UniProtKB/TrEMBL annotation:
GO (cellular component) term, any one: nucleus
Record protein name field: protein-histidine N-methyltransferase
Organism: Tieghemiomyces parasiticus
Sorted UniProt keywords: Cytoplasm, Methyltransferase, Nucleus, S-adenosyl-L-methionine, Transferase
Enzyme type, top EC level: transferase
Length: 415
């Protein structure tokens, strides 16, 4: 099996300038139509998704979300929605002939049609009540949360903690937590199984298993994993890192040495693709078959501390309570992360109940949200009022972003 990762040039640099954040990240759930109503829609059961390298498509196109970590540029890569569309088109499904139930379980036989139908249903909207919660797109408050974690790692330690991201979508904050730790247990949850399969899992595996290069300017980079009958010359830096981002998101120092060869026991090589004289040549990193033992070791280590879930928030705690081993940690978490999930008061009630059930005493929940969601009945103020009325938690605004529409990171902890 061959995997190819292509990095597009539309890099997003996360800074305090809100105009930069508008390059390719979605701003407001209310900017696009919201379909449907939550009335009489049954709650989706919790489904656990098993990480599986073989469920990745033959090709992925990712672009970097660039943020600043201790004054150094760093990137986490995310899959683009257009790449999902391309994958489903390549699978040549016959839309309209198979009316697969969008609520039923996904099987290998029904997955192509199910995913194509799902994408066809959601591509023109950001929300469909009871059907879709916007997870196919990367929302800017998730990047605010990513930035906050990077800036406060000394006061909010992650190592050895149990961490949950609710409504994860692209999963950027969780990927950061996985990169930063070796022993933290990180779980990601999204409402839609399709989002977990098509967006969350590819993002997690790409960022955690392969040493992805730090972007330089707006240059695209192609990264491919191929099986060769004969070993090839390679760069040795990849062998030195036990995890893909052991150098905190930076590329190996010689990852752009124009294809120069290095020692024989490495597992990566860099070359430049042929192109016309008036076209810039595209650097390509090849991971050869000699990478497989190390790759599988990293994958096995990742599966021990990363779990993926889909379904309604109300179903997650009962599922975890029923599946968790008998141990002191039970099914609760030290840190719960969520972003762009309080845009409606109905969502706020469910989120509050989930945090109350899943956060351990002494734990912290971080909620990244816009102060106001135009056209929606939920915002930071209505959520604060809910928390105050219940009298169980303390809320503190710990960070603000945005020069026009204010965005906040809120810390929530038991009284």
């Amino acid at each position: 099996m061959a995997f190819q990762f292509n990095f597009t040039p539309d890099i997003l640099d996360v800074s305090d300038d809100e105009s930069q954040m508008g390059m390719s990240v979605e701003h407001n759930h209310a900017d696009a139509p919201v379909k449907g109503t939550a009335a009489n829609i049954p709650e989706r059961p919790c489904q656990e998704f098993t990480l599986d390298l073989h469920r990745l498509p033959p090709a992925l196109h990712l672009d970097p979300i660039v943020f600043h970590d201790n004054d150094h540029a760093r990137a986490i890569y995310r899959r683009q929605l257009n790449d999902v569309k391309f994958q489903l088109a390549q699978e040549d499904t016959m839309l309209g002939e198979d009316q697969t139930d969008l609520h039923g379980p996904i099987t290998p036989a029904t997955a192509p049609v199910r995913y194509a139908q799902f994408l066809q249903q959601v591509e023109s909207t950001d929300l469909i009540s009871g059907e879709y919660e916007g997870g196919m797109k990367t929302w800017e408050c998730s990047i605010d949360l990513l930035r906050y974690l990077a800036q406060h790692r000394n006061t909010l330690p992650l190592e050895g903690k149990r961490i949950l991201e609710l409504g994860c979508g692209s999963g950027l904050p969780s990927i950061f937590c996985l990169q930063e730790t070796e022993r933290a247990e990180v779980h990601l949850q999204d409402y839609n199984f399709e989002v977990v399969e098509l967006i969350t899992q590819p993002n997690v595996l790409a960022n955690l298993l392969w040493s992805l290069p730090r972007p330089e300017g707006d240059s695209p980079v192609s990264v491919s994993l191929e099986t060769h009958p004969e070993p090839t010359e390679a760069i040795g830096e990849a062998e030195k890192a036990p995890m893909a981002n052991a150098d905190k998101g930076k590329a190996p120092a010689d990852a752009h040495d124009d294809g120069d060869e290095s020692d024989d026991d490495g597992e990566m090589e860099v070359e430049e693709e042929d192109s016309d004289d008036d076209e810039p040549r595209l650097p390509t990193i090849h991971v050869t078959d000699r990478d497989q033992p190390a790759l599988l070791a990293r994958f096995t280590a990742l599966t021990r501390r990363c779990r993926l879930f889909a379904g309604d928030w109300s179903k997650l705690a009962p599922y975890l309570a029923g599946s968790a081993p008998i141990e002191a940690s039970g099914h609760q978490y030290d840190l719960i992360l969520t972003s762009e999930t309080i845009y409606s008061q109905a969502s706020q009630l469910k989120l509050y109940a989930a945090i109350r059930a899943l956060l351990r005493p002494g734990g912290v929940a971080l909620i990244a949200a816009k102060s106001v969601y135009f056209g929606c009945d939920g915002n930071v103020h209505t959520f604060a009022r809910l928390v105050e009325e219940r009298g169980e938690f303390r809320l503190t605004t710990v960070a603000t972003y945005g020069s026009h529409l204010r965005r906040e990171v809120i810390r929530m902890e038991f009284l």
